[in-house]
Amino acid sequence: MRLITLGTGTVALTPARVCAGHAVLAGDVMLLMDCGSGITHRLAQHVPRWREITHVAFTHFHADHIGDFATLVFGWKYGSMPGRSLPLTVIGPAGIADLLGRLAVAFGDWLRDPGFPITIVEIAPGAAMDLGDGVMLAATKVPHTPESIAYSVTRGGRRVVYTGDTGYDPMLAEWARGADVLLCECSLPDEMGIPEHLTPAQCGAVAAAALPKHLVLTHFYPPVERTDVRAEVAAHYAGPVTLAEDGATFEIEEERC
Ligand SMILES: [Zn+2]
Ligand SMILES: [Zn+2]
After folding, report:
1. What's the gap in Å between 257 CA and the centre of ligand 1?
2. Residue 221 in 3-state DSSP?
C-alpha cells in the first residue's frame, strides 16, 4: 500500500498546504479520502494515474473536505478527450447521497451522470466494505460534526487509519490500535484546544493508546505550526512521528503470504 498525503492544510489558506485529501493506492484500488480545495491540482502533481481513481471516500461535509469534488468530476468529464468511462464509487457517511444531489442541483445533472457510472455508498459507523482486490474500508464515528467518521484501509495484513477531522476520543484510539500508519489530524495548539479538533498533546495521547507503527500528522492550522509539535507529541508518545507535507509518500509493505 502507498499513502500520499496530498492536502495537509485546512480552510486557513496557505500556499504550501491545500485543504484535506489523501490517496491510498492498494493493488487495483485507487482511493481518495476527502477532496478539499486544491486536491485536484495535487492529484495532477503527485498521482500520475489520477484519472483512474476508483473510490472517493468523504469523512464529513465541511467545505475543506469536499470543495474540489465537483471540479474533479468536471475534469474527468471534460478535462481530456475522450472523457472518463471508468466507474466510480463515492463513499461517505449518511447524507452523502443527499449532498451530491444538492451539488447536482447547483452545478448541473452532469455531476450525478457525468458519462461514467457513479455508485454512491453510505457507510455506517462500525461497518466495513470490500473495495475489491483484497482492500477493506471500515468506518467509525468521531466527534467533530454529527456525520463525521474516520476510516481504516486494510490490505495484505497492513492497516492505514485516517482520523478525518476529530476531537479527542479514547474510542478512536482503541479502534486505531496497532495501525501501521495512523494519519491523525493535528489542528490547533494545546492552548487553543476545542472539542472538535486535536492538539499535539492529544495526538500524542491518542498515539500512546493506539500504538501505531508510524504516526503521521496532518490538518495543521497555522498557529499549531508555530509550536514545537514534535516535543508536545513526544511528551506522550515515543514512537516515530512525521509531520506530513503535501505530496509526501508513505510506503507500507504488505505481508507476503
Ligand atoms: Zn477540516
Ligand atoms: Zn471539519
Report:
1. 38
2. coil
**244 alpha carbon – ligand 1 mean position (Å):** 15
What's the 202 CA to ligand 1 centre distance in angstroms?
17
Contact assessment for residue 26 and residue 58, using Cβ atoms and an 8 Å cutoff: no
Burial class (CB in 10 A: 0-12, 13-18, 19+), 200: buried
132 strand-pairing partners = 135
Which residue, among 58, 53, 105, 46, has the nearest Cα to 75 in the 3D structure?
53
Residue 12, C-alpha cell as written in the block = 486557513
Residue pointed to by grid coordinates 509518500: 249
User: How many angstroms separate the alpha carbon of residue 87 from the centre of ligand 2?
Assistant: 28
First to last CA, the chain: 15
Return the CA Rg of the chain.
Answer: 17
Distance of CA 240 to the CA centre of its chain: 20
Dump pLDDT digits (tens) for 98-133.
999 999 999 999 999 999 999 999 999 999 999 999
The reply to whether the predicted model has a pTM over 0.85 is yes
Separation of CA 63 and ligand 2 centre (Å): 8
- Sign, CA dihedral 103-92-37-171, equals positive
Question: Tell me: the pLDDT tens digits for 144-174?
Answer: 999 999 999 999 999 999 999 999 999 999 9
Confidence class for position 257, pLDDT limits 50, 70, 90: low
Q: Which residues, at least 6 apart from 245, have a Cβ–Cβ distance to it below 8 Å? A: 5, 8, 16, 17
CB 86 within 8 A of CB 77: no
Cβ–Cβ under 8 Å, residues 61 and 147: yes
Indicate which ligand has the atom closest to the C-alpha of 64.
1
Per-residue confidence band for 255, with pLDDT thresholds at 50, 70 and 90:
confident
